């Protein structure tokens, strides 16, 4: 499946990462924004939703070049590491996951958020009233991954590396949480559908599939850089950034405490499952979910909009 959208930089249309390369001149299977037809099931109940943020975090979640939204464990740390490695090296700066501290005009500021997912699972009532986790409706990159892999990776993170995880994760089995309406696969699917319905009409909207990045990182990272205005990247620096952001290298750096962010610290260096950069395997959910649970998850995917390409 190939998805196209207008470039956030306002240049040529940007091709969206997919598992199938599209030859120049061929059209996409994804409708143009004005022609978008949401999955019929999404039209059943669409409650009135007003996107606003009155919290102190509002300024942190606005501004910059673009916003990157994702369900947790969709690969955003990988993307963030690559982009930071590339732009820091390009401007002769030491690598950091917080390049905004340099106030370097050539390094685009990106906002990374879980938006609606955290709004529904992390925030309390007052957080939701204020819209604490919500981003503004503007230039947007949506990073998506198979909901089954997202769920399993999130479960492992909550039970093996995050001491502040909701108590529900500590009490429930993997099988029970899979069926939970908020934290389970149906909550992930609901959020992905809601994002697509809300944002697909924007001119500056792009979907990146994690599986496509894993299959062809060089190809799709070049597309992502182009969308951010870097249409002719320095290829020597590009290659360095690719190698730096490889999973094996990121795991070594995390184990050594080399990242300047608390988000990239293992829960227990002796436990590979407690690492933020854990496996990144496509289809790894099969090693964790029973046959019965795999069947339940597959059936749940019928509710996911077909334009994501995960329910074939």
Average pLDDT metric: 79
Counted by DSSP, the helix tally is: 12
What is the N-to-C order of secondary-structure elements (H for helix, E for strand)? Answer: EEEHEHHEHHHHEHHHHH
- CATH homology group: P-loop containing nucleotide triphosphate hydrolases
Number of strands: 6
How many angstroms separate the termini? 11 Å
Flag low-confidence runs. 1-18, 20-36, 273-278
Number of domains: 1
If classified by CATH, what would the architecture be? 3-Layer(aba) Sandwich
CATH topology name: Rossmann fold
Strand order of the largest sheet: 4-3-5-6
Taking the sheet with the most strands, its summary is: 4 strands, parallel
- Based on secondary structure, the structural category is alpha/beta
Assess the beta-strand content as a share of residues: 5-15%
Give the CA-based shape.
Answer: globular
Q: How much is the radius of gyration in Å? A: 19 Å
CATH class: Alpha Beta
The share of residues in helices is 25-40%
